[in-house]
Every structure is written in structure tokens, then in C-alpha cells.
Automatic annotation (TrEMBL):
Species name: Podarcis muralis
One biological process term in Gene Ontology: fatty acid alpha-oxidation
GO cellular component: peroxisomal matrix
Domain FMN hydroxy acid dehydrogenase: 1-338
Active site (catalytic residues): H233
Cofactor(s) the record lists: FMN
Catalytic activity: 2-hydroxyoctanoate + O2 = 2-oxooctanoate + H2O2; a (2S)-2-hydroxycarboxylate + O2 = a 2-oxocarboxylate + H2O2
Record key words, sorted: Flavoprotein, FMN, Oxidoreductase
Binding site for glyoxylate: Y113, R148, H233
Family matches, as InterPro entries: Aldolase_TIM, Alpha-hydoxy_acid_DH_FMN, FMN-dep_DH, FMN_HAD, FMN_hydac_DH_AS
Residues noted as binding FMN in the record, renumbered to the chain: 60-62, 89, 111, 139, 209, 231, 236, 264-268, 287-288
Family matches, as Pfam families: FMN_dh (PF01070)
Name of the protein this chain belongs to: (S)-2-hydroxy-acid oxidase
UniProt keyword DNA-binding present: no
Length: 338
């Protein structure tokens, strides 16, 4: 069984499938999300004294985002069980306190959008900090929502039974049928200068998600953030943007190991994890595979997805001649950007 078989076994309503698993106005992003991983080849290095019984590895993998129609706490429980990190969306169906209570020992980060009403964002940050979240992940690539034709064709409206617990009582009396918050709630005027405001609000380490160019990576570094996530938002924002792995190499070179570089987008196998680490990512994040696992069998399905990726990663690492994660480097891959 591989991660790619899970969408065929998952139980999706058409509307939900469209929301989480579709792309943008053309299918370019759908194709480009996976193609670069295929042309990045893994090289084998022989006679490296690889033991069949490899030591335990803390998989450099973390979970992304929410599935509102499944309890978000299942993400954190699975992450806790697998000893991996979980990023909780500010748009989650459980509050930060409920997520923390469900998996108190889990390594949790909190994802944030900056709203026009800054007090909303500030309160969220303070609640996450008080609930024991260890870092703040600012999504920087959604000044506006991309044109998602499947959502338009399916007349998508946010499910009335789903409540975004972190916003209870905040938007009373307003139309929240689009994505659970009023249209235009997110501030499109946010600039790099707002990083200074955010750093005054919290002492948590700050990671910027949505970086795809070396110029933005350099700006993130100059504004004192602790990490960046190379991401094209799963191909759901701007059509024709590069795949995350295509942007990774120049971004890693630009920051010169001064801040952590993570990656999400297109991870479907353990060998994908190996390739990302070989090209300089400190760890990877997954989104759609987590959704597939939850839709298949809840927390058990998600744990199965993580177990498959972990075992594939261990095997790929061993076959590439790497005895531990620290031995993974550019010598493991042959990569040329098309």
C-alpha cells in the first residue's frame, strides 16, 4: 500500500473533494506539482555499511492544515503518536485549547493570517502562546483567495455545521459562507514591515510560509524570522507558479544556513522526503496525504499515511547509502531545473 492509493479509498463528498484536492483555473499546477519530483533522480552509493536494522529516525515530516469535517484534534493526536510536528490552522474546527488538550505532548505550531482587524490576529497569537504552541507560522501568499474554478462550479459554501472554534463570537451576524470568515477579512495590505508588529506581539519563533523566490527569502532573513516554508500553497493560489522543489535550491543558497528552510507541496513518497532533504530542506510538510488518511479512516488512517512515508523514507535513505539523516546531501540526487 502506498500513500497514492488513499484517495481512491477515502470517502469524500464531491464538494469536499473539490475544496481540498482541486487546483486552479487551469490544470498546470496539478501537473507541475508532481512532475519536478519525477525528474529529480536519486543516486545510489554502495558499500556504505548499511545495517538492515536501522536506528529509529524522527521523521523530518509535519502535518499541514485542517479538515473541518473531521475533528482537527485527530491531526494532533496522530502527530503526537508519531513524534512529529503539527501545524494547527487558525481556521481549525477545534480551538487551540482543545487541540492542546487532545495531545499535550505533541510538538505544535500555529498558523496565522493577519486580519484587517489586527486585534483578532493578536488575540489568536496570544491564545496559541498560552496553550503551549511552540512557533508561529505566518501564511504570506493569500492576500486574496485564488480563483478556484471547481469551487465556483460546485457553488461551494462553507458547511453551516462546521464552526471555526478560534473565531467563535468574533464575526456574529456577518456572512461567513465563503470560507468560514467574512469575505475580505484577511488584510491584503500586509507588507514586510508588519513582521515587526508581529514580533512585538509574541516571543514565539516566527516562520513565513509561501516563499518561492530567493529575493523573498533574503527579505525574510533580513527581517529576523527564524524559518521559511517554501510553498506554492498546493497549486491553489497563483496559476503557473513553480513547484516548491523547483524553488528550493536557490532559496537554500540565498539564506546560507542562517535560518531554517522547510518545504511543502507534492510530497507523496518517502523518496520525495529524501530528495527534499538532499536539496537543503530541514524537513517537509504534508497536506493532501493527511486529508486522504483522515477521510479513509480518521486518526488511524492518518497514522497509516505517516507510517508509510516514514518506512519509505528509511528504506530510500538506506538504499541511497545514508546511515542517518545527517549524511543526506546533494550527492544523493541528480537534479536539473527544466
Amino acid at each position: 500500500m502506498s500513500v497514492r492509493t488513499f484517495p481512491h479509498q477515502a470517502k469524500f463528498r464531491t464538494l469536499i473533494y473539490s475544496l481540498y484536492l482541486s487546483y486552479l483555473s487551469s490544470l498546470h499546477c496539478s501537473f507541475d506539482l508532481r512532475w519536478p519530483w519525477s525528474v529529480c533522480q536519486t543516486l545510489r552509493h554502495m558499500l556504505s555499511s548499511i545495517s538492515p536494522k536501522m536506528p529509529g529516525i524522527l521523521l523530518p515530516l509535519a502535518l499541514m492544515n485542517v479538515v473541518p469535517w473531521k475533528k482537527t484534534s485527530r491531526h494532533s493526536k496522530a502527530a503526537e503518536a508519531m513524534k512529529t510536528c503539527y501545524i494547527a490552522s487558525s481556521y481549525a474546527s477545534c480551538s487551540v485549547d482543545e487541540i492542546a488538550a487532545a495531545a499535550p505532548a505533541a510538538l505544535r505550531w500555529f498558523q496565522l493570517y493577519i486580519h484587517r482587524d489586527r486585534t483578532i490576529s493578536e488575540r489568536l497569537v496570544r491564545r496559541a502562546e498560552a496553550a503551549g504552541f511552540r512557533a508561529l507560522v505566518l501564511t504570506a501568499d493569500v492576500p486574496y483567495t485564488g480563483k478556484r474554478r471547481d469551487d465556483i462550479r460546485n457553488h461551494f459554501r462553507f458547511l453551516s455545521a462546521v464552526k471555526l472554534k478560534n473565531f467563535e463570537g468574533v464575526f456574529e451576524g456577518k456572512d461567513c459562507s465563503e470560507y468560514g470568515v467574512p469575505a475580505g477579512s484577511i488584510d491584503p495590505s500586509v507588507t514586510w514591515n508588519d513582521i515587526s508588529w508581529l514580533r512585538r506581539v509574541t516571543r514565539l519563533p516566527l516562520i513565513i510560509k509561501g516563499i518561492l523566490t530567493k529575493e523573498d527569502a533574503e527579505l525574510a532573513l533580513s527581517h529576523g524570522v527564524q524559518g521559511i516554508i517554501v510553498s506554492n500553497h498546493g497549486g491553489r493560489q497563483l496559476d503557473g507558479t513553480p513547484a516548491s522543489i523547483d524553488a528550493l535550491v536557490e532559496i537554500v543558497a540565498a539564506v546560507e544556513n542562517k535560518i531554517d528552510v522547510y518545504l511543502d507541496g507534492g510530497i507523496r513518497t518517502g523518496s520525495d522526503v529524501l530528495k527534499a532533504l538532499a536539496l537543503g530542506a530541514k524537513c517537509v510538510f504534508i497536506g493532501r496525504p493527511a486529508i486522504w488518511g483522515l477521510a479513509y479512516k480518521g486518526e488511524e488512517g492518518l497514522r497509516k499515511v505517516l507510517e508509510i512515508l516514514k518506512e519509505e523514507f528509511r528504506l530510500s535513505m538506506a538504499l541511497a547509502g545514508c546511515r542517518n539523516v545527517s549524511e543526506i546531501g546533494r550527492h544523493v540526487v541528480q537534479y536539473s531545473k527544466l
